[in-house]
Amino acid sequence: MDSFELTTEAEYRAQFETLFRDNYDRVRQYVARRVPLSRVEDVVSSSFVIAWEKFRKVENPSLPWLIRITSFEVANAGRKARRSINDVRVDSVSNLAEVGSDVFDGESVRSALARLSKTEQEVLRLVHWDDLSRVEIAEVLGLTHNAVNVRYHRALKKFESEIVPFPSTTTQEGILP
Amino acid sequence: MNDMSAIELLEAANPETDELTYSVDEAWFAFQLRQSTKKHPRYRSLTFARRGGRHVKRPYWLSVRPFRGRVVVTVSVAFAMILLAGVVVSIVRGSGRLDSPITTSWQSGNSLITKQVSDTRPSRHGTWLLADDSLSGTWQQIPVGPPGVGVTCPTASACYEMDKITAAPVENSPLLSVSFYASTNSGLVWTEYSMPSGFSPTTSLSCGSNSDCDAGGTYNGQSVLVSTTNGGHSFTVAPLPSTVGTLLSLSCSSGQFCGGLASEEAPYSPTYHPGALGYGQPTNATFLSTDDGSTFTSTAITAGNSLWTLQCASRLDCVALGDQGNLSDGTTDWAKGVVETTNDGGNTWSSTTMPSGFAVGRDSVLSCADALHCSVTGLISVPFENPLACAAKKPYSNSPPPLHETAGAPNAAIGTIVQFESSLITSANLQATPNAEDFGCSWPPETSITDIVSTTDGGNTWSPEQLPSSVPAPVLYGLSCPTNNECWASGYDANVQRVPGGANPTESVLLGTIDGGSTWSTVTFNVPPGTPNFESAFGDGIGRISCPTANVCVANGVGIADAASLPFYRLVIPSSTT
Questions:
Q1: Burial class (CB in 10 A: 0-12, 13-18, 19+), A129
Q2: What pLDDT does B438 receive?
Q3: What span, in angstroms and rounded, lies between the C-alpha atoms of B534 and B526?
Q4: Over the stretch B353-372, which tens digit does the pLDDT of each residue have?
Q5: Is residue A158 within 8 Å of residue A97, measured between CB atoms?
Q6: Which residue in A has a C-alpha nearest to residue B13's C-alpha?
């Protein structure tokens, strides 16, 4: 006969603390890539508050689940910013790296990304910036694994058609160290 | 000097985020602090304005504005209240539970706008002919088609499609309305009709005859079957019996008979399961048959199986496929497919299994030419790791094996297919192709590709098909088998497709067999003069396919996700070649 144990408040809190500590950096990095630095902590904090409210109802809380919640908070931050005239503009790529290199033009990448649809931008960022697996991205976006693959490939192809080529240190063998 | 690839540019543009304002300890402390203060909501104090020497308790937003502003605000508030009242009334009216079927009034429909012949501007959706090189026939691209991907053609001339209109072109966006598209000339011209307001589909459209189509879904939260008998001019919304849940899969073999898989819970709410194929597991589905929506009969199918898809070749013969849900450890082995068949209209069911290693999931497409001959798409797992991609990603610290994927060893027949595919997806092949570094690095180190298995004995035994070597990593989302010998499958190649004029990492592909699956051939498309460039032509690839007869196929185009209209394809094969 199966035995069932009720999870106490303290146990929930302990489980959530583990989830928090394991994933805080990744969630913060996700947010920092999408909103101005001045708002990052606020969005991260709001995301974890909501995660805590939903924590007991979720079968398997994980990083993708946290990222999914956080993505909604990032979107909310953007909406709030647009409603406030004096507030800073929340732009998905406003924190884009300005690499001190004469072979890389961040503005060009920013422009190319901006010409993609929101979904296409997000798929590319999740793959190449946030380093999530396709299975994790499927959970974040609420898509099937196949749908993620299709959208990713099409987004990449579209990005390639939008970007202006730049010189590189890439060789046939791969990227030089 | 080579150019930086798009992927390198993207990764170089990754913002620096390493400098954390707080340590994890500090962040956890701040979180706890916020939690404790959250219990004390802020109160906004009322403001008072002096009017005629008396203190009047008024909302602050009226007290501090000049007269003109007050009028504007008052009018705005009144307008908002009227609007709110209207919404409430509509909700109250619309939320009434159906006890009997209702039918919408007749509507004429709106024609989709076709590109003018005189319009010579370059267009991604321009018309060109797509000719195959292995199976004689001519593909024609039609510039304007429905915006979705679920075409179904019950006859050579009648084609239908149903699409949701959402608030934004993204997943899970709020549903605004549902449109029904009809064509009476194999997709050349389309007319759009409105489906009943409040209807949200949970199944694909299934059309049993020239003018009869049905779809399962919810109507203001109640499980229903919506049907039309006049090609979309009017719809009947019939409530399902209270003993069954929402329809998950629907197959209509004629205008008078439909069979469906219904969930046991009502209404059905998709529940996401990490790692599972798709989401929403229809565990313990019930078979629901209906006589044109006027009467329903439900029978239970074997408990414990998660059934995903159903096809009824006649009112007696149906095949349902799924996976083995509810394993003892609470997981689902997605690579152990199950088959349920009935030959008496659903009264009794027989169970058997699919070849081990072949996964039937939510994206599987089942097509039955008759009661004996069926084919279905599913996934097989090919062990593979792309060194170029994985070098940068190891170790897979954040990608543990998904809990719900407990794939067992494939059986001998599937193992042969896996071995064949493994020989095609090689590191050398990948490294010689553009953009290969993004493919083939996941955890576990394997990649899922589509295969097709078929039965010729009504579902008792199933055999895997060896797809063409020219498509090393097929991902198929369309399958249609109009006869015992002929099947067409559409999708794309996740690896690379070498074609005249270049290579494309996500090539749209169309596969066909006219000998019962003994040999599958690849259809390659010839791009006509005037197409801007090779890849843009393939950007608008082929989506779902429907072949009502041996000579006619139609297929959705896929391309820009939020395009208002997508191209459409039609194939007419000369009779002499079939």
A1: buried
A2: 44
A3: 10
A4: 888 888 887 778 999 999 99
A5: no
A6: A97
CA-CA distance, B65 to B60, in Å (whole number)? 9
Cα–Cα distance for residue pair B401/A139, rounded to 1 Å: 14
Half-sphere exposure of B224 (CA within 13 A, CB side): 24
For residue A40, which of B41, B30, B424, B65 has the smallest C-alpha distance?
B30
The position carrying tokens 């450890």 is B329
Domains of chain A: 9-95 (1.10.1740.10), 97-167 (1.10.10.10)
As for the ipTM of the complex, it is 0.72
Using alpha carbons, list the distances in angstroms from residue B164 to A139, B386, B546. Answer: 22, 38, 20
How far apart CA B439 and CA A153 sit, in angstroms, is 10
Assess whether pLDDT exceeds 60 at residue A30. yes
The span from the CA of B311 to the CA of B317, in Å, is 8
- Dihedral of alpha carbons A136, A142, A144, A148, sign: negative
Q: Which helix (H) or strand (E) holds A78?
A: helix A63-83
Q: How sure is the predictor about B456, in pLDDT bands with cuts at 50, 70 and 90?
A: very high
Q: Which residues of A34-54 are buried (b: 16+ CB within 10 A; e: fewer)?
A: bbbeebbbebbbbbbebbbee
**Edge-to-edge strands of the sheet including B175-183?**
B110-111, B191-194, B175-183, B159-166
pTM: 0.59
Q: How close does chain B come to A68, measured CA to CA in Å?
A: 12
Nearest to A41 among B10, B22, B170 (CB): B22
Nearest CA-CA partner of A93 in B438, B14, B105: B14
Q: Given an 8 Å threshold on Cβ–Cβ distance, is A168 in contact with B169?
A: no
Higher pLDDT, B202 or B166: B202
